[in-house]
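Homework help board

Subject: predicted structure for assignment chain

Our instructor gave us this sequence and asked us to write out the predicted structure in token form, then describe one feature. I got the tokens but I'm not sure how to describe them. Can anyone check?
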Amino acid sequence: MLNKNQVYTATITDYTSQGQGVAHVEGCAVFIPYAIYGEVCEIRLTKVAKTWAAGKIEKILQVSPHRVNRACPLGKRCGGCAFQHMDYEEECRLKSERIRGALNRIGGQNLDQVPLLPAPSTACYRNKAQYAVGMHKTKVVAGFYQEGSHDVVVSNRCLILPPEMDLVRDAVTDYMNQYRVSAYNEQTHKGLVRHIYVRKGWISGQILVCLVINGNRLSKPQPLIERLQKIPGFATLVLSVNKKPGNSILGDTFHTLYGPGWIEDTLCGMTFRLSPRSFYQVNHPQAEKLYEMAIGQAEIQKTDTVLDLYCGVGTITLAMAKAAGKVIGVELEPQAVEDARDNAMRNGVDNVEFFCADAGTAALELQARGLTPDVVVVDPPRKGLSQDVIDSVDKMNPRKLVYVSCDPATLARDVALLKEKGFVLRTAQAADLFPRTAHVETIVLLSK
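My token output:
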């Protein structure tokens, strides 16, 4: 029987999906943050449940050669970068093994390995940031929520973001403090500014700033605009009205205060218009390689009809349109569909069609129309595919199904469900679009 606060010596033999070390003590799995595979540690148990326990490192008796000093002093408090205590080589190995383990254990596969494409850089790669706004004593601050809480952790410099984004954060908080613009309080549901949302075009350098507010207007926007104009690349300022309690960041209503309300960027040789709600991969160089992998796996021919569910602003849709006869994109977010249609027109792509609908509803409607796509591409949110999407794709009977996933567990679950429909996993590859964090992208190819 394990005892809380007791110290045990154990070897780290595995990782959890979030990158915590796993050891076994007296036959019980113990989860230890910031432990690295192969290390021998003295572990103090902080929680003991019936089938598992949690612990913390008291002392490392045998240090992994992959252990490094954290580059960010707030790495443990912020929790956004889960792997700053290990080198990038071990992080990539961990992510590859996590995907392989999920596909084998949950997806019913028997894979020896899942190749992973490392990122060319682990710093300054994110093209989007969402700073939470809060109060520190009497001062407005902005940063990221501490892991497992809604306490705002403030860092002078986030290493995975371009420096311009931190300049935007500072400009907004300075403005709020000078003009006494209130920060939103989750407990009282009072205060105005909830989040500072920043997006930067990787190629264009254009910066979109969106303030998420618990109200309808900003009383003195001009001093803020003047501050933002000093930041290289600043192109537009938008307000997003979100008066609803809860964790959703963006609201449903947007007001443009400066500029066009959108920015442009170039991806896969095409120009895309990006609004605050537009889905766009956060790592530009890796996104291009990810889409190349997806298109390569699909082996699209000029006679093919391709169905792209969850198409966002049409990035994969338009890239695949170069090779296909026709591509149909489906997306739930109206603004993203509007952007996708505009992107197609401005890039001179005329063999695409976009539908604004839920993926499941659209799949059923297209199936009822008798659409028989040769290739179906799905890039769902973290929760994966709904059963009606799986059923509809099965009835469409495509030659190939390309599944792009940001969550190995839901991907593996859906691979198992598709296996029941007669789909066979042909290939699985990964690309690290989120270095130093626990997230990873996977592409699998299935066919009947």
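Reply (TA_rk): Your tokens look well-formed. For the description, you could write something like this. DSSP finds ten helices and 22 strands in the chain. That's the kind of observation they're looking for.
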